Write the structure tokens for this entry.
Amino acid sequence: MASAAVIAKRYAIPIILVVLAVIWQLVILPTSFPRSHYDVIGVKQNSTSEEIIEAYQGLALQWHSYKDTEIITENVIEIQHAFEVLSNQFRRRDYDLFNFDELQDVAKAAKKQYAGDKFSRLKLPLLKMSETDLIDDNSEVLTAENFKSMLGEEGTWLILVYSLGSGNSQQFAHSWKKIVDWLDGVANTGKVELGEVQLASYLAERNRATGHPFFRYGLPSIIAFPRTCRRLDCLVRYSGELNVDAIVDWTATDILGLPRILYYSLEPLVTEVIRKPGPHKVKVICFSKTGQRAAPFLRQAVRDYSAYASFGLVLWREENATLWWNMFGVDSAPAIVFLKDPGAEPVVHYGATNSSVFHNLMEQHKSHALPQLRSITSMDLGCDVKGYSRAGNDTLTWYCVIVAGKLGSKLSKAREIMRSVQDNLTNEVIPGTASISSLPDSLVAAYAFQQKRLTLAWLDGDAQKKYCFFYLHSENVFETCGPRRYAEEEDVPRVFLVRYRRNNSEVNIDVKQQYKNIWDTFREDEEGLASQLVAKYNGSMEGPEILSWMSNTIKDGDSSDLPYFRAKAPDLNPEESNPAWSRVTQKIGFSSKRRMTEKVKDFVTGGSDYMKDPRIGPILLLASALYLGALWLRPNQSEQKNDKEKNIV
């Protein structure tokens, strides 16, 4: 007994390997490689359609003559299944090239449904499908030729791989059209029919064991090329449910890394969207009747305009209609509300929007009615010493009138006054042939404003204290600039005008000039191309008086030949260096870590490919033989060693 146990222990591993090889060859492989449809019908793979029909009719005669009494068997379903695949040119093509058979699940269901029934109850064909040509949508039809140029374009691509012989592809056509519309302006979309064999094979996965192209998740198949991806090793395959909401959200979140927009009730809306982002942002509130996720173009706007605006969604309910009307002047949904300056009426846009319409709305309303002077707006406003006038690069003299102060009721009132001044400048009628010298003093400011040589803006004296101190340096400047030093300190908004003048002789300086030393290069960076002269307003905060002062100052600035003086103004501080949505999407976006996760997932799911590898069985047998050889050599070597020792003795 002891010797038998020793022998069993000694040969356990090779025996186990042999058993596994037998199980693999006789059990696992047959289930992984079922009979082909050609074998079921009894024809060769290169048979014509007529030969397939003839073979099928010959098999069908065996049960049709007894259809009222004969019992349906699994073999009957298999024959019908094989015939429906091979008799359709598209299904047969998909089966031959990509081993794709959409009828497998239908056949399995039919076997369960008709088990034990008579032929008279069998409904044929198993899968009814109407013929179709191309999916009718706005996505680009991709071929092997234009796919190369597509890879050269920037942006994210979402590609649909489908087949004209696939019922699921036909059912998905309407959903794909909606997806294309939802992603318009956010991601590029294209589609590939399996008839484009070269391109479809390129986009397909490869069976790790056989190298055969296939689509693991069936058809239709959704494939994404992220913005920086133009190779197969970084594309992403969608593996979720084939519905519009899930695919659009996957594209926007996982592929594009767009931030989400949350739905809010009243109190969180006021706290998170209106108050928390600060006064420098326009508030954009979207009212929805359906409560569905934010469209991708809205989410893209959060990313693109995060420095200008904060966003929130509100589900419209009729019981809250009075509340929203009193707060924002909204009486129905869908609607978009833009909240701008304190005291200004909300701007309401009604109706559904698309990407281009919403982009135009954001460009129109991304700034306050009286724009704020900020690090990201100074160039556009023409209020930067290194910039140019809004009138163009050829303008030599331009002006920026700024009201500065600490956030509060007094600054809000001053902003409202300056807004009315801006409206007066906009609405003033200037004769088309007029020149600044021929205009009355009261129209000089309006003329400069309409020529875009004059800009009005407001400045947060606390957030931009260095900038504020630079232009308003005086004994009482702390009433306007910097944080409040004590609770009872009086807030005094102040208005000042900056005249920018470009030295025409310096504009044409050769950019390749040679500097004498390194300090000259630093000095050149510190000096702007425009000189600055500051005029402070000391009158009352009344619109007509401010208008008169502006006109007189501009007229004097245009006519006087003042000394050319330059000094570097402090840089404006950015209000928000790392917005909250950016911190979130750093985790959501398609990073290298996420790509690694996708690769691990593909490796795990690809393990099933090796279940179809016919080499596994022989490898197991070879391993068993090698192990047996090692066991046989080991005792022979020990016996030879003992014989040598005896001969020596």
In short: The longest helix spans residues 616-648.
